[in-house]
Specification:
Number of helices: 12
Radius of gyration: 19 Å
CATH architecture of the largest domain: 2-Layer Sandwich
GO molecular function: 3'-5' exonuclease activity; DNA binding; DNA-directed DNA polymerase activity
Number of strands: 9
Helix content: 25-40%
Organism: Peptoniphilus lacrimalis 315-B
Pfam family, one: BRCT
Order of helices and strands: EEEHHHEHEHHHHEHEEHHEH
GO cellular component, one term: cytosol
Shape: globular
CATH topology of the largest domain: Nucleotidyltransferase, domain 5
Protein name: BRCA1 C-terminal domain protein
């Protein structure tokens, strides 16, 4: 089911949003930094940046990834104290980000609201325009296009995302492409998917979904469905199932029991390996069961 607020436009007035968080689950993890740029006529006219104090300590893995320490946030406001400023800054603008639904899920959870702003995702545009790239992370694209590529912090990522959107618009103009040229439905039969007895049951696969052509590994017991059914959904979305975490893995999906163990300081061998690979620069994300359900419905 597509998100009713997701849009695809070429615009010059918008807000760029990025968040840094304690993990990838909007159910269990928290925002530790928010960055926003206000853009008018393609120019940055204002910016908002705020560190946030989470309820729980920041894990050493997240500090290694973002550079944000517990010392840096100990005197910062809690998320509920910045809601008014953030919502006032964004107003009714279209929100642009890189994997924007991630940031919006965290804002919705942190503020306990449902943002009704339209939003766009530069990652989806980039996948269409630059299919020659193996990965489409913000760091991959800024390096490929020669854009700003600073530290992994909210405002720096916002600036890089804004430059990426400018480059996307320029590339579309140079190639004579419109929105309708990028999103043309195509049929696929799940080529390259082969794990045990799980085969695609869908003929038409939406290339815009999160799991298309992505390597996925499951670990731990799922609460809401049996693993076989979850694997079938991934395959039907064009995903590629693997049994173990490798350098090819894009998503490690943790059953909720595994994610709850993290809160007690326990991590499985698969989880530890995934974190190690991510710190080494691999394109891998670790998500919990509920976030998985959000992604397959978005």
């Amino acid at each position: 089911m597509a998100n009713k607020n997701y849009t695809k436009q070429i615009i010059n007035d918008y807000c760029v949003l990025d968040t840094e968080t304690t993990g990838l689950s909007s159910y269990y993890d928290e925002i530790i930094e928010i960055g926003i740029l206000k853009v008018r006529d393609n120019k940055i006219v204002d910016r908002y940046s705020q560190l946030i104090k989470p309820d729980y300590e920041i894990d050493s893995f997240i500090t290694s990834l973002t550079g944000i320490t517990n010392e840096m946030v100990k005197e910062m406001p809690a998320i509920n104290f910045v809601m008014s400023d953030v919502l006032s800054f964004i107003g009714k603008d279209v929100i642009i980000g890189h994997n924007t639904s991630f940031d919006i899920r965290f804002l919705n959870a942190g503020f306990n609201i449902e943002l009704d702003n339209k939003y766009m995702d530069t990652m989806q545009f980039a996948r269409k325009l630059f299919p020659e790239l193996k990965h489409h992370r913000l760091s991959d694209l800024t390096s490929y296009l020669g854009l700003s590529n600073n530290e992994h912090r909210s405002i720096a990522d916002c600036i890089a995302t804004k430059e990426l959107y400018d480059s996307i618009k320029d590339t579309m103009t140079k190639r004579g492409l419109g929105i309708q040229d990028l999103w043309v439905k195509s049929n696929h039969g799940g080529k390259g998917i082969d794990i045990k007895s799980i085969h695609p049951t869908e003929v038409e696969i939406d290339e815009d979904n999160f799991f298309f052509n992505r390597h996925v590994v499951f670990t731990g017991k799922l609460e809401k469905m049996i693993r076989q059914d979850a694997m079938q959904i991934v395959v039907n979305l064009g995903g590629i199932l693997d049994n173990s975490v490798t350098k090819s893995t894009n998503y490690l999906i943790l059953g909720n029991n595994d994610y709850n163990a993290i809160l007690k300081g326990e991590k499985s061998s698969k989880h530890k390996k995934a974190e190690k690979l991510k710190l080494e620069g691999q394109d891998i994300e670790i998500i919990d069961e509920f976030t998985f359900y959000d992604l397959i419905e978005s």
